[in-house]
């Protein structure tokens, strides 16, 4: 009877982890869509309209919006696609992908903190699309951190 209990406990734990990583994968698609939109607007030279906060054009035309001529949003899109891919693999049980996912999300979180600092204290404006990306990244960080702790427990 104890053996059955442990056998049923493990699939339940695996199922929770798979669900957690599936949520991470789906949430990363929100960040990916946001980043792709901003990248397209940047590349085509369109002006992004803010409807919730004022300041999108100030933030997106600042020197911090590009890295060596590449739109920061494109780097964000690559990061979100990587998170989607790693979370999908982690949901299917690839344990190494869980570690790599945690590392990538941690780097994204640190970058998000830096970008929020720049918006608040250097640019003095906020972009709603950047804030959406920040919210997605913070949520991804929380889910991955909680999921990592739950998986690490014996």
Q: Can I get a quick summary?
A:
With about 150 residues, the protein is mainly α. It has helices spanning about 1-45, 55-60, 70-90, 95-125, 130-150; strands at about 65, 70. It has five helices and two strands.
Spatial separation of the terminal alpha carbons: 19 Å
| Helix segment tally | 5
**Biggest sheet statistics:** 2 strands, antiparallel
Helical amount: over 70%
Q: Provide the succession of SSEs.
A: HHEEHHH
Number of strands: 2
Q: Which term fits the overall shape?
A: elongated
- Structural class call reads mainly alpha
Mean pLDDT: 90
CATH fold name: de novo design (two linked rop proteins)
Q: What does this protein structure show overall?
A:
79% of the residues lie in helices and 3% in strands. It has 154 residues and is an all-alpha fold. It has a single domain, classed as VKOR domain (de novo design (two linked rop proteins), Up-down Bundle), CATH 1.20.1440.130. The protein has a two-stranded antiparallel sheet with strand order 1-2. The radius of gyration is 18 Å and the shape is elongated. The two termini are 19 Å apart.
């Amino acid at each position: 009877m104890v053996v059955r209990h442990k056998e049923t406990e493990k699939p339940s734990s695996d199922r929770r982890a798979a669900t957690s990583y599936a949520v991470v994968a789906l949430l990363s698609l929100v960040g990916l869509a946001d980043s792709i939109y901003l990248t397209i607007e940047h590349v085509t030279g369109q002006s992004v309209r803010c409807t919730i906060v004022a300041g999108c054009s100030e933030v997106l035309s600042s020197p911090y919006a590009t890295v060596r001529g590449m739109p920061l949003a494109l780097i964000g899109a690559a990061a979100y696609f990587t998170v989607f891919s790693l979370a999908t693999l982690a949901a299917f049980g690839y344990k190494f992908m869980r570690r790599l996912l945690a590392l990538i999300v941690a780097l994204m979180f640190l970058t998000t903190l830096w970008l929020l600092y720049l918006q608040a204290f250097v640019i003095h404006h906020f972009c709603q699309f950047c804030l959406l990306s920040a919210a997605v990244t913070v949520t991804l960080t929380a889910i991955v951190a909680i999921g990592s702790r739950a998986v690490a427990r014996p």
